[in-house]
Design goal:
Number of strands: 13
Number of domains: 2
Strand content: 15-25%
CATH class of the largest domain: Alpha Beta
Order of helices and strands: EHEHEHEEHEEHEEHEEHEEHHHH
Largest sheet: 5 strands, mixed
Oligomer: single chain
């Protein structure tokens, strides 16, 4: 039914703990998916052997040692046994609601990209959820201490094998490529489905020691700059989803029109208003003739 693939970092220290947490959780999903771990980072082969999942060592990297998206996804397509694929970051816990959501969306539409917002949580040890019947305890912990991440942070992507023929050479795990992926789905007329209401995806908080100089702001690294150059203006977030998955149905998301309007139109009008003061003064106008229109649009956008 589904092939989950991921590219873990080295299984050392805190990253080793949270990645092992995540992979052990994927291996307990029902029905059980095929799991492929890609890359030759320390401990990956051993973890693959422990959980009985596949390991593909060969992944092309840049000069920083960061895997390249185009080759990573090509390797996944070449080795996957299923037609529905899921790339997920190796620090994300996927729970019992995940496989049912995949089944519903893949049966509904041939061409789709399913994504969803994550919930951030400090979680170091696996004892609370190392057995399937402990999932309610984990959900309770998320309810009490978790924080919903922003809509531009995307950590899992479910899509059919043939959705795109190829991918640009983005650096994986750095900004912009995930937002480009959503933009490309929209541009190709695939259904972009927000499954946040149904799928609880738990992001285990971590430091950023894997970045150059341990930069807490991933946007500042050189690889992010390169990714941004490749992506250009091709940027979308989960708020741009054209459909929403709920417990009972899949509905069209009319709110994505509001998001697109705010992103494309309002910044330009705001810039115009900042420069229109002298013109208004000469014409004897106390207020820009389009200021009221901007205000009305903002009011509608917040409904």
């Amino acid at each position: 039914m589904l092939t989950i693939f991921a590219q873990p970092k080295a299984f050392k220290g805190h990253f080793g703990v949270i990645q092992r947490n995540a992979i052990s959780q994927w291996a307990r999903l029902s029905p059980k998916p095929e799991i492929i771990l890609l890359g030759g980072e320390e401990g990956t082969a051993e973890i693959a052997g422990e959980f009985g999942v596949r390991h593909v060592r060969e992944v092309r990297c840049n000069e920083f040692g960061t895997p390249m998206l185009d080759h990573l996804f090509e390797q996944a397509r070449n080795h996957a046994s299923n037609d529905i694929l899921c790339y997920v970051n190796a620090d994300i816990l996927l729970l019992g609601d995940f496989m049912g959501a995949v089944k519903r969306v893949s049966a509904w539409r041939d061409r789709f990209l399913m994504v969803g917002r994550r919930t951030n949580l400090d979680l170091d040890v696996p004892a609370i959820y190392e057995l399937p019947y402990n999932e309610p305890r984990l959900r309770a912990l998320v309810q009490n201490k978790g924080r919903l991440a922003a809509a531009n942070a995307i950590d899992y992507f479910v899509f059919p094998r043939g959705l795109f023929a190829s991918f640009p050479p983005f650096a994986i795990g750095r900004p912009w490529w995930d937002n480009w992926f959503l933009w490309q789905a929209r541009a190709s007329k695939a259904a972009l489905v927000d499954a946040s209401e149904v799928i609880l995806a738990v992001h285990q908080n971590h430091d950023y020691s894997h970045l150059p100089k341990g930069q807490p702001n991933v946007m500042e690294c050189e690889e992010a700059t390169r990714n941004k150059k490749i992506a250009g203006n091709s940027f979308r977030t989960i708020e741009d989803a054209t459909y929403k998955l709920s417990a009972n149905r899949i509905t069209y998301n009319f709110r994505h029109f509001r998001v697109s309007t705010e992103r494309a139109v309002l910044p330009r009008w705001t810039a115009f208003l900042k420069t229109s003061g002298p013109v208004r003064h000469r014409l004897g106008l106390r207020r820009s003739p389009i200021a009221g229109m901007v205000g009305r649009i903002r009011a509608l956008a917040t409904r």
